[in-house]
């Protein structure tokens, strides 16, 4: 009896360690790819008001939302691999980091939408969106952060009311984002450049996968035991978590590349104009 119980406990832990190894490998590769691509985009397009430099391009690339997200995933996976016998508190911490990792994905949707409005433009302040629309794109990040914090804190201190409030806020924000992206997919054809509109369509393709990830976030907190991060079904973690995140990140990176291609000579015009505006270089 005790032997069977022991083996049933060890199996999920072993499977979860395998998932953790896969996450470290996959997200390390994603981080390297996004860092390279984002650096090239920052250097060519530079939408910031600060003076352009190699160090700033590297800093913005490293701490981009798609850059922070893999770092969170790598850290949470390393936590599981750091010991042969993970404790309940360690699984709780890892689950919290998994939940926190959802916010960079939502933030990146906001940033990609903003970049689609600046497609084919170089330098700051050249968005084709009206100011009210830009405010909405920036604004929905705040309730996302609040929702994630409420959900994580509610789970840690075992206060269901906080968790439910966070889940409700997250669902409302996600519905708003879906409506906003759908509206842009229709109206963006006349508002944006062809590259910007294609970026919007690719962002829209990421929403179904993001929906699964949001549902998984809610089930992680309130679903049946098979969603429990410590002893639940690892295949659900791999399918609703890891696989969905790979699709989302891939589509968002692609959308940004479509809106801001890293090839061609037009980006050099911006670099030349920056140099001309900075005497003494």
From TrEMBL:
Residue ranges annotated for the DUF7702 domain, each copy included: 15-253
Annotated transmembrane regions: 20-37, 58-81, 101-120, 140-159, 165-186, 198-216, 236-259
Entry keywords, A to Z: Membrane, Transmembrane, Transmembrane helix
Source taxon at top rank: Eukaryota
Matching PANTHER family: INTEGRAL MEMBRANE PROTEIN, UNPLACED GENOMIC SCAFFOLD UM_SCAF_CONTIG_1.265, WHOLE GENOME SHOTGUN SEQUENCE
Entry protein name: DUF7702 domain-containing protein
């Amino acid at each position: 009896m005790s032997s069977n119980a022991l083996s049933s406990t060890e199996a999920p832990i072993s499977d979860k360690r395998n998932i953790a190894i896969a996450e470290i490998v996959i997200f390390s590769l994603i981080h390297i790819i996004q860092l390279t691509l984002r650096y090239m985009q920052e250097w060519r397009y530079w939408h910031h008001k600060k003076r352009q430099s190699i160090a700033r391009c590297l800093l913005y690339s490293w701490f981009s939302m798609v850059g922070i997200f893999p770092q969170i995933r790598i850290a949470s996976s390393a936590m599981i691999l750091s010991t042969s016998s993970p404790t309940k508190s360690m699984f709780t911490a890892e689950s919290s980091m998994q939940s926190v990792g959802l916010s960079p994905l939502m933030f990146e949707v906001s940033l990609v939408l903003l970049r689609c409005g600046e497609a084919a433009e170089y330098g700051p302040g050249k968005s084709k969106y009206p100011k009210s629309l830009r405010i909405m794109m920036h604004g929905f990040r705040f309730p996302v952060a609040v929702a994630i914090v409420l959900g994580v804190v509610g789970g840690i201190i075992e206060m269901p009311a906080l968790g439910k409030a966070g889940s409700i806020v997250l669902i409302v924000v996600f519905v708003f984002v879906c409506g906003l992206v759908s509206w842009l997919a229709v109206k963006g054809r006349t508002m944006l450049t062809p590259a910007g509109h294609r970026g919007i369509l690719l962002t829209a393709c990421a929403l179904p996968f993001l929906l699964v990830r949001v549902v998984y976030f809610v089930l992680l907190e309130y679903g049946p035991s098979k969603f429990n991060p410590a002893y639940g079904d690892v295949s659900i973690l791999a399918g609703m978590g890891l696989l969905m995140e790979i699709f989302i990140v891939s589509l968002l990176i692609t959308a940004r590349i479509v809106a801001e291609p890293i090839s061609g000579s037009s980006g050099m015009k911006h670099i030349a104009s920056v140099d001309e505006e900075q005497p003494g270089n």
